[in-house]
Amino acid sequence: MQHRFKDLKVWQAAMDIASLTYEWCADFPNDEKFGLISQMRRAAVSMPSNIAEGAGRESEKDFARFLAIAKGSSYELETQFILAAKFNYITAEQLQLVSDKIDQWQRMMYAFRKTLLMDL
């Protein structure tokens, strides 16, 4: 069963997190362009991209595997935001905001993936 990924709330929320990441990384120092900025942007893009790719797969099991990859990217991104705060590239308030968004997204993903796997 194929899913319409653009209709999935987990995909939409991942897109919001990716947009926020790009927006905030634009204010990082230029010497981070090929370091932390690149890593953060890749992790952020990986979240909705893996949801979209998984949605196009032929089985729910394959879809669930791509959702797990997307979730892993969210943990990577959160770690990178923690580093960005340690380096004073973002404020404590920004870190709290993005951590809350990522946590909420992870909860959504857990519930969605659990529902998906129940159908197997």
Provide structural commentary.
The protein has 120 residues and is mostly helical. It has one domain (5-118): 23S rRNA-intervening sequence (de novo design (two linked rop proteins)), CATH 1.20.1440.60. The protein has four helices and no strands. It is elongated and about 45 Å long. The termini are close together.
Helix content: over 70%
Overall form:
elongated
Q: How many separate domains?
A: 1
| Number of helices, counting only DSSP H or I runs of 4 residues or more | 4
Count of DSSP E strands? 0
Averaged pLDDT: 94
What structural class is derived from the secondary structure elements? mainly alpha
User: What string gives the helices and strands in order?
Assistant: HHHH
Q: In what range is the share of β-strand residues? A: under 5%
> Major beta sheet, specifics?
none
CATH secondary-structure class: Mainly Alpha
User: N-to-C terminal Cα separation, in Å?
Assistant: 11 Å
Low-confidence stretches: none
CATH fold title: de novo design (two linked rop proteins)
CATH architecture title: Up-down Bundle
Radius of gyration: 15 Å
Specify the CATH homologous superfamily: 23S rRNA-intervening sequence
